[in-house]
Specification:
Pyridoxal 5'-phosphate binds at residues 77, 180-184, 261. By secondary structure, the protein is α/β, with parallel strands linked by helices. The chain has helices at 23-28, 48-60, 77-89, 103-111, 124-137, 151-167, 183-195, 240-254, 260-273; strands spanning 15-17, 32-37, 69-73, 92-98, 115-119, 142-143, 174-178, 200-206, 234-238, 280-285. The chain has 2 domains: 6-40 and 150-292, Rossmann fold; 47-143, 3-Layer(aba) Sandwich (Rossmann fold). The longest helix has 17 residues, at 151-167. The termini are far apart.
Length: 300
């Protein structure tokens, strides 16, 4: 029998139904709330999909060849996924990351063989992105640029969206995703609305002053070029405290150990469920909770 290579295990992640957290009221009103377990991907997040897509398609276009140096600014999950994909396909990966992000992420990137450059906390992801562009101008490698690379939303249009439509048998009424690079929400929205324009697409963003890994409200000059605002019907803002409390609750009450941005998307899904009846709401569980242990979000 033929065996899979590691890259072939990316995608086709399952949907699971919330039980205790959803509550009896949603059951009475006929609402179904489903999480898509992207932490089941081999490097542990939804970013495995675009990471492999960006490298493989750049290779197919002849822009890069195995052995070349690739550069990316990352807040964590994309960096881990790119480090894994680079290891699979034979590239050297240089990742640029703000110094205040969790130590588990940095250690995982290094485990995959990536070189890591830490930038000052005060500069945030904006400074990291600027440095990546500077290094590319200086000829130090090719920047994949998840924020502007169409191969990011494209893979969600080709895989994530169709999987959700298939696994809900076309019954999905609402799709919720945290918004970081916006690749997931842009690509999935495009696919779902081609199947049914009535599907509501809702983006989770952090409230003013909240710092939630994986969710960003970008300054206008740094807004991802791949973002298509017309594909998002509604924005919902989540506080850091609410997202962290939901992450702990999901672990205790559902046995779902997920990251903070995934919990923020779940918070928004539950908020939507209070407004509707007979709805099928899908949110992206974008990663696992083990890469947040050093942040203090989960009790020691």
């Amino acid at each position: 029998m033929p065996y899979l290579t590691l890259d072939q295990t990316i995608g086709n992640t399952p949907l699971f139904q919330l039980q205790r957290v959803a509550g009896a009221d949603n059951a009475r009103r006929g609402n179904v709330i489903l999480g898509k377990l992207e932490g089941n991907n081999p490097a542990g997040s939804v970013k495995d999909r675009p990471a492999l897509s960006m490298i493989r398609r750049a290779q197919e276009r002849g822009q890069i060849k195995p052995g070349d140096v690739l550069i990316e600014a990352t807040s964590g999950n994309t960096g881990i996924a790119l480090a894994m994909a680079a290891a699979i396909l034979g590239y050297r990966m240089v990742l640029i990351m703000p110094e205040d992000l969790s130590i588990e992420r940095a250690q995982t990137m290094k485990a995959f063989g990536a070189d890591l450059i830490l930038t000052p906390k005060a500069g945030g992801m904006e400074y990291a992105r600027d440095l990546a562009e500077q290094m590319q101008r200086e000829g130090k490698g090719l920047m994949l640029d998840q924020f502007a690379n169409p191969d990011n939303p494209r893979v969600h249009y080709e895989t994530t969206g169709p999987e959700i439509w298939r696994d809900t048998e076309g019954r999905i009424t609402h799709f919720v995703s945290a918004m970081g690079t916006t690749g997931t929400i842009t690509g999935v929205s495009r696919y779902l609305k081609e199947q049914n324009p009535e599907v509501q697409v809702v983006g989770a963003q952090p409230e003013e002053g909240s710092r939630i890994p994986g969710i960003r409200k970008w300054p206008q000059e740094y807004l991802p070029k791949i973002y298509e605002p017309q594909r998002v019907d509604r924005l919902e803002y989540v506080s850091q405290a609410a997202a962290e409390a939901m992450a702990r609750r999901l672990a205790r009450e559902e046995g779902l150990f997920c990251g903070i941005s995934a919990a923020g998307a779940c918070e928004v899904a539950l908020r939507l469920a209070r407004e509707v009846e007979n709805a099928t709401i899908v949110f992206i569980v974008c990663d696992r909770g083990d890469r947040y242990l050093s942040t203090g979000v989960f009790p020691a």
